[in-house]
């Protein structure tokens, strides 16, 4: 509900999206869900092997993994004619090295040389299914 500036009351005519979930397509969602569950501190659902697996991390991050038997790993860097999305996982600046070690231990693969953009450090990886993601310092 939106607050009306004149009355201070909420206007029930407005409807807002309360949450969003990023869904990654992959041929085998189970290992990809396990990989991200470890990274974001999520519990895996009791029912695995379904068409869609959704996890929620301890800080509210939600990611889902949809089974697509024809899924192919995205390319990185992407071709000019391709639209792709990738995740930025936010990490405390002083924990970047620790989280990078975890990513590699869990099956992630480095993709590019780390770089700085202003005050932020970016480290590029792919998950076990080949989806690109970035560890971004905060």
Structure description:
It is a single chain. This protein has 138 residues and is α+β, with helices and mostly antiparallel strands. The chain has a single domain (20-69, 85-137), classed as 2,3-Dihydroxybiphenyl 1,2-Dioxygenase, domain 1. Helix content is 16%, strand content 31%. The protein has helices at residues 29-40, 96-105; strands at 2-3, 10-11, 22-26, 52-56, 62-67, 87-91, 109-110, 115-117, 120-126, 132-137. The chain starts with a strand and ends with a strand.
Describe the protein's topology.
Blueprint: E1 2-3, E2 10-11, E3 22-26, H1 29-40, E4 52-56, E5 62-67, E6 87-91, H2 96-105, E7 109-110, E8 115-117, E9 120-126, E10 132-137
Parallel strand pairs: 3-5, 6-10
Antiparallel strand pairs: 1-2, 4-5, 7-9, 8-9, 9-10
